[in-house]
Structures are given as C-alpha cells and as structure tokens.
Amino acid sequence: MTLVLIGPPASGKSRIGKRVARILGVPFVDTDKLVVEAHGPIPDIFETHGEPHFRSLERAEVARALSTDAVVSFGGGAVLDADTQRDLAGHSVVLLTVQPHAVIARLGNGKRPLVPDIDSWIALYESRRDLYERLADHTVDTTDRPTDVIAAEIADWARAEHRTPRPTRTTRPTEETIR
Ligand SMILES: Nc1ncnc2c1ncn2[C@@H]1O[C@H](COP(=O)(O)OP(=O)(O)O)[C@@H](O)[C@H]1O
Ligand SMILES: O=C(O)C1=C[C@@H](OP(=O)(O)O)[C@@H](O)[C@H](O)C1
Ligand SMILES: [Mg+2]
C-alpha cells in the first residue's frame, strides 16, 4: 500500500507517519528528509536557490516516494504541484489538521522558512485549506491528542481501506465471517 499524509506544517505528518508505518509494518518515507539528505537543510535551499527550486527538488522526491509501498509523509507544500495532485488520485490520502493554539508550541525550531510565526502559519493554511480538503480521502484532527492514539486510528482506517473485497457470499454470514 501507499498511504500519504498531507496537511499544513506542524500538523504532525512526519511524527505520526513514522508511527503509522511502524504499526502497519511497512517502510516510512518523509519527502522532506529525502530532499535534505540529497541537497542539505531546507532553510539553506530556500535562501540560496529560492522556493521554486525547492519545489522541483521536492517534486522529484515525491514522485520517487509514490512509487514505493510505504507510508509517505509529504512536506506541507508538496501538494501545490499539479503533477503531484494528479498522482494522489491513485493513493490513499490522509489529511492531518491542527488548530492554531496547538501549533504555537509545535513551530519551535525555525526550520520552516515559510512559517516563522503563527500569523504566517494561519495565512498559509487558509490559502491551502481547500486544496488539502479536495485531495484527502480521510481527515484526522491532531489538536490536543496524543500521537500514538492518532497513529492507531489512521492505521485502522488504512487497513480497512486496503482490505481486499470479500468474495460474494452464498450463505448467510456467521458471527465469524462478519468479523
Ligand atoms: N499530536 C501531537 N501532539 C503534540 N505535539 C505533536 C503532535 N504531533 C506532532 N507534534 C510535534 O509537533 C512538531 C511538528 O510535528 P511534525 O511531525 O514535524 O509535523 P509536520 O511534519 O506536519 O510539519 C514536532 O515537534 C512534533 O513532535
Ligand atoms: O508547507 C510548506 O510549504 C513547507 C513545509 C515543510 O514541511 P512540513 O510540513 O513537514 O513542516 C517543508 O517542506 C518546507 O519548509 C515547506
Ligand atoms: Mg514534516
């Protein structure tokens, strides 16, 4: 399966994606991590080459990640790419949301050049909200909730989503076949 986590910065895609992959026993891929491994820190890429260059590096890693069976956590802006939007139609996509009061504590490290503070985070989220919602098959709010609970919920949803359809029943289902 390829399960993709999308959503605004600090919604928990990287942290929760890793846990979901562990629960499901599949590899975990973080597209930002792939970009950093190949090209160095994200703030440096933005500063030296600008956002369009970062987006093209990101798109290449997204395309590679989507060809693997894995849980894939995107960077928040990866969905802006038209080819990526098209590719997502063939995958299970979970949108993580979060309310501003919870984001303030999560923005901490200054590694996100587009969201130096909560006001810029709110503006960025508002500008993308419709897109995120349009691309998502399932939405999970992460505000004030423990990551292990959220990850378990997403893993349950993914299992149900990927369960192969059962053959047509010819007899009345028993308690056991229902389960
Ligand atoms: N449900 C949660 N509750 C509290 N903190 C969280 C939660 N999910 C993520 N975090 C923390 O918020 C920060 C951003 O999470 P991260 O997974 O990097 O988000 P994203 O990849 O969406 O930008 C990290 O410090 C992470 O540990
Ligand atoms: O929303 C965005 O445009 C970005 C989100 C970041 O990833 P996270 O969403 O994992 O923080 C990272 O890709 C880059 O700073 C740009
Ligand atoms: Mg991340």
TrEMBL record:
Keywords: Amino-acid biosynthesis, Aromatic amino acid biosynthesis, ATP-binding, Cytoplasm, Kinase, Magnesium, Metal-binding, Nucleotide-binding, Transferase. CDD domains: SK. Pathway: Metabolic intermediate biosynthesis; chorismate biosynthesis; chorismate from D-erythrose 4-phosphate and phosphoenolpyruvate: step 5/7. Substrate binds at residues 32, 55, 76, 128. SUPFAM superfamilies: P-loop containing nucleoside triphosphate hydrolases. It is an enzyme of class 2 (transferase). Monomer. Catalyzes the specific phosphorylation of the 3-hydroxyl group of shikimic acid using ATP as a cosubstrate. Belongs to the shikimate kinase family. This is Shikimate kinase. It comes from Herbiconiux aconitum. The gene is aroK.
